[in-house]
Amino acid sequence: MIKRWKVLVVEDEDTIRTLLSDLLTDEGYEVLEARNGYEALDLLKYEIPDIILLDCEMPKMDGYETIKRIRENTYWVNIPVIFLTVRSSEQDQVRGIELGAEDYIVKPFNKNILLAKIKILLKRKELTTNINPLTKLPGNLLIQEEIEKRLLRDSDFVLLYIDLNNFKAYNDYYGFARGDEVIKFTAEIIKDVESLYGEKEDLIGHIGGDDFVVITSSKNYQIIAEEIIKNFDKEIKKFYDAKDLERGYITTQNREGKTQDFPIMTISIVAVSSAKTRIVDYYDLSQKAASLKKYAKQMGKSVFLEERRKE
């Protein structure tokens, strides 16, 4: 499956934003748009782009403050940023680079140069983002390569897809720093359990956010899933304040911006086995796991579900 790169365009001028969006869409990119820094930061809570084109001169929050906040967040820190600006002085360019911008383009820009710089940064990112910076676990590219390798060998394996329930609410309520601790804690649980019940050639991967995978040839995959759930449910409460534990929930805004009560985090694990269901390719496996995960998350508790359908 060919990856479609995702570009976030942050630009307050409608004409320029539309021009960039059309140009990038014609080149095959998926384009996200924001009119200022606040909109960009809000969008980043739900979408993680592969690269950001960031205007320096914007109302409400300019590009310099926006990139400063982006670089302070663990999930966003490695997203390449290209500054777009009418300022051409060396001082302005140095300021942007010091704040973490990978490149700097002065308006009016040459579209071919812009596209070339985007391609260079995305290629560089592809080569350097195989390991998740927070958990030090293999990321998407290595996960995909491992799955495709096993499919080509026609070897039996099980994909365990692991996802936290109500993590976003926790992250919003307690902040990114405490959210990062939960992610690292979850990774450690998975590694500890896998070391006890897995096989030497198994792979533990961190897709991003609160999504993990285990690719295992072990016949103990159900035990692996159940032990992860048991350990997670036992230890997750230590990440909550006493008053919230006593209530049994936290109160914050949902994705629609409405106030909602969210119970203590739980964990969903689903399994798709190449021995029990026909898997065409990596994309097909991803779809099967995503569909099963969606069902699991509706149960409102920690749960392990397995794909059992023959095709």
What do these coordinates show?
- It is built from eleven helices and twelve strands.
- By secondary structure, it is α/β, with parallel strands linked by helices.
- It folds into two domains: 6-128, Rossmann fold (3-Layer(aba) Sandwich); 140-306, Reverse transcriptase/Diguanylate cyclase domain (Alpha-Beta Plaits, 2-Layer Sandwich), CATH 3.30.70.270.
- The strands form three sheets. It has a five-stranded parallel β-sheet, sandwiched between helices. A five-stranded mixed β-sheet has the order 7-8-6-11-12, with helices on both faces.
- β7 and β8 form a beta hairpin.
- α2 runs parallel beside α3 (63-71), α7 (167-174) crosses α8 and α8 packs antiparallel against α9.
- The radius of gyration is 21 Å and the shape is globular.
Unreliable spans are none
Number of strands: 12
Sketch the topology as an H/E string, one letter per element: EHEHEHEHEHHEHHEEHHEEEHE
Strands ordered across the widest β-sheet: 2-1-3-4-5
Largest sheet: 5 strands, parallel
Strand content range: 15-25%
Number of helices: 11
Helix content: 40-55%
The structural domain count equals 2
Mean pLDDT: 91
CA-based shape: globular
CATH architecture of the largest domain: 2-Layer Sandwich
